[in-house]
Amino acid sequence: MQELLKASQIVNLRLQALEIFDSVKITLDSGPPELPGTANVIIEVVETANPLSGQIAAFTKAEARYSTVEGSLKYKNLFGYGDLWDGSLAYGYDHSTELSAGLYLPRFKGLVTPVTARAYLLSQDWLKFSSYKEQSMGLSLGLFSSEHHDVAYNIAWRTLTDPSQMASRFVRRQLGHNLLSSLKYTFKVDRRNSPMRPTRGYAFVSTTQLGGLVPDNRSLRFLRQEFDLRYAVPLGFYRAALNFGVSGGVVFPWGNGFSSKPSSLPERFFLGGNISPVCALGGPTTLWGFKTRGLGPTEPRRHVNDGTADPSGVDFLGGDLAFTALADLSFDLPFRWFREKGIHAHVFACAGNVAK
Fold first, then answer.
1. Does the N-terminal or the C-terminal CB of the chain have fewer CB atoms within 10 Å?
2. Which keywords appear in this protein's UniProt record, sorted alphabetically (predicted)?
């Protein structure tokens, strides 16, 4: 009976996660007398009265000085497969914009994994840090997804421009059009008791991305590998725990003459910003103590003699090789009010570097 109750809870959660039912009720009863040791399981569901839903929200990450306004519309179960159709628009106060439309099929025919597809238009403004704007138009397909494995394919037409006309020599060489066609595989294991404040357990993420899967001379050919390892050790007092982390990544081009080609600027690693590396899991992306993209190789911007250019301005170029390490001690404060509000203390140290 306990196994049946546990299985019923899992089924209930999975049905609720489909977002197409207003209510799910599972009733367990003993089976007929002529079939001893059996049970009747009755599942009653009420489909959503209105298949169309929408939301609009504003998100702010004060530590990263970043805010966005996002709106989305969803249409549920159009073809009766639990399918979710959605369209979304996101605008960031750093002048980034994303318009996308997607389809999610949790189960389709005999497939055992969800099917996802998303078409998108993306615009990002990196003029302040690296003197370029990025516009992408593409399609992303989720090919396989399970508890520990994820495989996705992405194809996009990408354009890099410099409206300021002040980019450094390296950035100017990267401007123009290119085609991104890549296959991405992610392996993830997370055995921590909390992703926000882990006090025990471990986590490991490895991501491999291979670009250049179409026979086109404008296709970006590169191999990118990232990993992130975390381990938390409880100390036994005040919920204190030591949390250790190490992450790294490397990217390099492949194909004819790869040894003399620089890696693509958007695919490079950039470190900096004030997002907590304790909560970030996925690769070398954050490092306390530096501004956004503020660590690693730089190159002076082109000086324009019009009285408006900053002669000391530089472009942050990122790197092909990145490495970060983290040591963190977290513990409860000796006041009940802080513990009830979830406020705790951290003592931390981090290190990292980005190189060509």
1. N
2. Membrane, Plastid, Plastid outer membrane, Transmembrane, Transmembrane beta strand
State mean pLDDT over 85-114: 86
Contacts 24+ apart (CB under 8 A), 8-17: 8/41, 11/43, 15/43, 15/45
β-strand partners of 287? none
The model's pLDDT over 320-356, given as tens digits with 9 standing for 90+, comes to 999 999 999 999 988 889 888 888 998 989 999 999 8
CA separation, residue 308 to residues 302, 314, 327 (Å): 12, 15, 44
In 83-200, beta strands by DSSP E? 84-92, 97-105, 115-125, 133-145, 149-161, 176-190
Tell me if 138 sits within 8 A of 181, measured CB to CB.
no
Provide the CA 49 distance to its chain's centre, in angstroms: 33
Residue 97 has pLDDT above 60, yes or no: yes
Mean pLDDT of the chain: 88
- Tokens found for residue 295: 């660590």
Mean pLDDT over residues 134-153, rounded? 92
Cα–Cα distance measured from residue 335 to residue 83, given in angstroms and rounded to the nearest whole number: 49
Give the number of other CB atoms < 10 A from CB of residue 146: 10
> Does pTM surpass 0.70?
yes
Number of Cβ within 10 Å of residue 340's Cβ equals: 8
Helices (H) and strands (E) in the chain, counts: 4, 17
CA 107 remoteness from chain centre:
23
For residue 306, the model assigns a pLDDT of: 58
CA–CA dist 189, 230 (Å, integer): 10
